[in-house]
């Protein structure tokens, strides 16, 4: 892969070269096209390992799409290729599955949820770098509820208003993702389970616009997901 640094401003394909831009990068990315034909990969026995790899990668991308869907109200904050970062996390989770055979390894997010700790939608506007007070959040799986508490905020001391904006607000989402979201080829029961969670998968809350000066009172937020999935199972 090469990067175009000259005055050539092209997007698309020229011959065997593909020109495109990557979110979070100012430079034009250039790569060559090539590789075996799709028909060969689907049918020829020498590509059996490739087909298995593709099935496992499809499971990763399925889970990534559902994780990203779970914070859709916050997607506007993305300032780098978030999908790539999530795919990498899902691939590491998939490697932990040693029970299934090659081509059927699952992305068991429920068993390795701690691997999402530290993930951020933005590299320029990380929440903890902007709000310097301890935010506490708890989840009650029996009642599908989340409780978030933000203490009193002295904006002059504990709000990093790096863009010098006159107001700010807090947006919180509670979302549910099932392990079934990651199957590359889902059986009927798994599809039913996935759709059940997708239909009732999230709720969100946003404060009114708060002035970015003075001391703002403490905020207490409670979120609850649809009753039809109570209580949450381990997966």
What does this entry show, briefly?
This protein has six helices and 13 strands. It is an alpha+beta fold. The chain folds into two domains: 1-34, no CATH class; 35-229, no CATH class.
Fraction in helix: 25-40%
Question: What is the CA-atom radius of gyration, in angstroms?
Answer: 22 Å
How do the helices and strands follow one another from N- to C-terminus? Answer: EEEEHHHHEEEHEEHEEEE
Order of strands in the sheet with most strands: 1-4-3-2
Question: Which shape, going by the Cα principal axes?
Answer: flat
* Average predicted local confidence, pLDDT: 82
Q: Gap between N and C termini, in Å? A: 39 Å
Alpha-beta content class = alpha+beta
* Sheet with the most strands, sense and barrel status: 4 strands, antiparallel
* Portion in beta strands: 15-25%
Report the total helices: 6
Domains, number: 2
Which segments are poorly predicted (pLDDT under 50) over 5 or more consecutive residues? Answer: none
Please give the number of β-strands: 13
Walkthrough of the structure:
The chain has two domains: 1-34, no CATH class; 35-229, no CATH class. Helices cover 26% and strands 22% of the residues. It has six helices and 13 strands. Strand 2 and strand 3 form a beta hairpin. Helix 2 (48-69) packs across helix 3 (82-95).
Question: Which helices and strands appear, and what pairs or packs with what?
Answer:
Layout: E1 2-4, E2 12-14, E3 17-21, E4 28-32, H1 38-43, H2 48-69, H3 82-95, H4 127-130, E5 136-140, E6 145-150, E7 153-154, H5 155-158, E8 167-168, E9 171-175, H6 188-199, E10 202-206, E11 210-211, E12 215-216, E13 219-224
Antiparallel strand pairs: 1-4, 2-3, 3-4, 5-6, 6-13, 7-12, 8-11, 9-10
